[in-house]
Every structure is written in structure tokens, then in C-alpha cells.
Amino acid sequence: MCFDSLKVYGKTYEQMGSLTKMFKMMLRPYNMEEIEGAFVRHLTVSNEMPTPKDIIAIIDPSTQPKKWSHDAFRDIKRRIRENQFVPDDEIKYCDDYIKAQLNEGENENR
After folding, report:
1. Segment 61-90, tens digit of pLDDT
2. Spatial separation of the C-alpha atoms in residues 98 and 80, rounded to whole Å
3. What pTM did the predictor assign?
4. Are 49 and 3 within 8 A, CB to CB?
5. Burial class (CB in 10 A: 0-12, 13-18, 19+), 19
6. Shortest CA distance to 78 belongs to which of 69, 86, 88, 68?
7. At what angle do helices 70-81 and 88-108 cross, to 10 degrees?
8. What are the CA-CA distances from residue 46 to residues 12, 19, 26, 62, 63 (Å)?
9. Dist. CA 105–CA 99, nearest whole Å
10. Residue 49 has what DSSP assignment?
11. DSSP readout, 62-95?
12. Residue 110: helix, strand or coil by DSSP?
């Protein structure tokens, strides 16, 4: 249904077999309810054919690399300094941000 109704940008119907195999291979770990729900969520925001990675990101966002924000980090640290309430997940974000920055610096030196 998606192939027939969404934008697929240059894909031909003959490629549908390979596309189906790729989706089956990548989405095998997930159950049908999760997959269908992810497709529905995707369709509420896009009229383009999703990739398996798009569907996996909806089902399990933790599989995607974090996008770090220096501004968010600074804001959380400011609230900590000012003794404002900061939830545990934001404190963890700061710890993970620092680790990511340190790892990035180590990778540049290699």
C-alpha cells in the first residue's frame, strides 16, 4: 500500500521485491503491531515512503545516535548551579554529553 500511495522518488515497481526483502530482514526483530503502529505514525507526518531505519527509529528511538545540544547542556548545568530542580534524565544527559565530547576529542587525535 505504501509503495502505491507514497512518494518513492525513482523507485520502480520491479524493485518492490528487493524493497520488501530489505524491510523483512531489518524489521524481523519487531512484532507486527509495533511495525504497523510505526507506519501509521510515519504516515501522520510524511507522504514519502519510509525506510526500514525510519520505522526502527519510531519503534525504538534508543537505536538512533543522540543529537547533542551544547545549549541544552549549558542550560541544565546553569539550573544545577542555581540549585533548581533538575530531573535525573537531564543529569544523565549532561554526563553522556561530556563522555561524547571526550570520545570525540580522542577520535580526532587518532
Report:
1. 777 666 788 999 999 999 999 999 888 888
2. 15
3. 0.54
4. yes
5. middle
6. 86
7. 130
8. 20, 19, 21, 21, 21
9. 10
10. P
11. GGSPP---HHHHHHHHHHHHTT----HHHHHHHH
12. coil
